[in-house]
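hey so i finally got around to running the thing on that chain from the lab meeting. sorry it took forever, my laptop kept dying and i had to restart like 3 times. anyway pasting the input first so we r on the same page abt which one it is
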Amino acid sequence: MVYHLKEFALSKGIGMNVRGSAAASFILYILGLSIVNPLKYNLPFERFLNPQRSEPPDIDVDVEFKQRERLIQEIYQEFGKEYVAHISVINRFQYKARFRDTARAFGISPQELSNIRNHLGEKLIENIYRIAEQIDDYPHYFSCHPSGIVITPYPVVKYIPLSPNPAGQITQFDKDGIGMAGLVKIDILGVRGFPQLYLSKENIDFNDQNVYKFIGAGKTLGCFQIESPLVKQFLQKIQPTTLMGIANAIAVIRPGPARGGMREKFLKRLKHEQKIEYPHPKLKQALEQTLGIPIYQEQILQIAHDFADFSLSNGDMLRRAMTKERNSSRMKMLEQLFFTKATKIGYRKKEIKTVWERIRAFSSFGFNKAHSTTYATLAYLSAYQKLYNPLEFFCRLINNQGGYYPTYAYVNEARRWGVNILPPNINKSESNFSALNGSLITGLDKIKNLSYSTIERIIKLRPFKNGQDFFYRVRPSIDQGVSLIKSGGLDTFGQTWPEFYFILLISRSSKKTTYGLYEKIPQFRDFHSETKLCDQLHAIGFLPNHHILEVFFPKRQNRINDLVTGKKNTVTGTPISWRTVLTKNKKPMSFVTIDDETGILEVIIFPNKYKPHSTGPIMEIQGTIKDDSLIAENYNNLCIP
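ok and heres what got predicted. didnt touch it at all, straight out
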């Protein structure tokens, strides 16, 4: 089934790859379904297929974001709509919902509910609370799972009950119920920023040290999975030289290992600031690749196998119990088996307990190694393409609306990489961004208010001779016409914007489909260039030819690339990401990424400098560069003139 989808995706130029534990299958690798060779990276097969599992395995699939529905339609086409159903999510009654719905059943209006505190203690309210407690965690309503699909050999209704839904029929069992019923499900997950080079990965050198240096230099904005400030900074510190170096970074940077202090310990050992030690000599093989620090769930299997002579199947059952059933009878049975087998080998009780506690402690935040290795491979492909073919890289990235940052951040980055960005042109632009004579031309879909049907009509009817020809043949609405003018999409005709507005109004007031009498229109003086740039910014969300700071704040004290470490600096930038967290003392602090025409910069705003409601389109920040970040001492928001 998955092989068929892969062949379909390949024939249509769609990026698709299996994710998660399925990457542990050598067969899937040979068939081209997985990008990772499990033998090379020591991925235990039992993490994917374990004969002791009670429910069938599944294969999760990543597909590039804009092509997800196309792949799902192929599933319906290939297997038949009666044999396919979306899996449901059963939303259950929680505290507020259970009381609110019970109260409404008693006839209490929403207005009265908002003042319910005034009635606490009344007999009716106490009765509602008592009844509501009895439906706690009961099913409330169905919704459609965002990615889960079930496919059956006979019509789905022969196996499980179904419910109608706008997305098509959905199962009345959720994903856990589907597994208990013995049915195979597949998850189709849309991934933004899926690297185009996946389609020609066989020709890629995965040992190109120029690519690893590029990643270690932190130039990964836009690269799949390795572009966020945290991952980027960590990669700069570890300077990876192999795919496993990238995989380790992706795994260690996650919240679980961070809470366990693994990230700092890993970095110290990598830089030889801390000795690499193992809880027991028998654990060296399992932990050597991660410097003696357990990071991956698969390492539980290996440790149980190497130390206590567990089969890899039993090792996986131990891994599952430790991550999902820590207090179950199965867990107690496996713990007893671990101690029994280790004792028979001849280990002392103390050393058995040390190893057991070590793997139990890290099991709650261990990451899937197969998943991490897969994503590291895709990340490498992204970096490879950005380094060697930035034009195609940015075209696909922007069209997939991919990544951690907004579209304008990727447009700015493309310009910094020497990619020429052209404004929209109704005679040349496609629906999406596209390559044109070595440049990227803005897609018509980036123009505010422009409907898909109008875009189709433009592409079908072109070329157009002038503004009159365009407006009388396409006949966009007033809102669409105004956005088209402001976007610069009609500038190719050499007419002024006021002339376009005049033609638009005349075309909307006339029932004729030709412009006849208005072929010779009055001449109007054009608007000021700064006014037009402001309008273009609002129409498409960015300026194709310039960073907005170049236009509206040309006289700045510093550019980002001018800043000097250890010296107080003032810099102006546009925020492309903003994350506010609470410290241990419950005080807010912010991590902001800003950019200008020369580069990007991470800014840290500590609690004593934090200002509430302080985000803005442009910021002026005073501070000092430390460890490649600007420590803010003061900052203000600036408005576009």
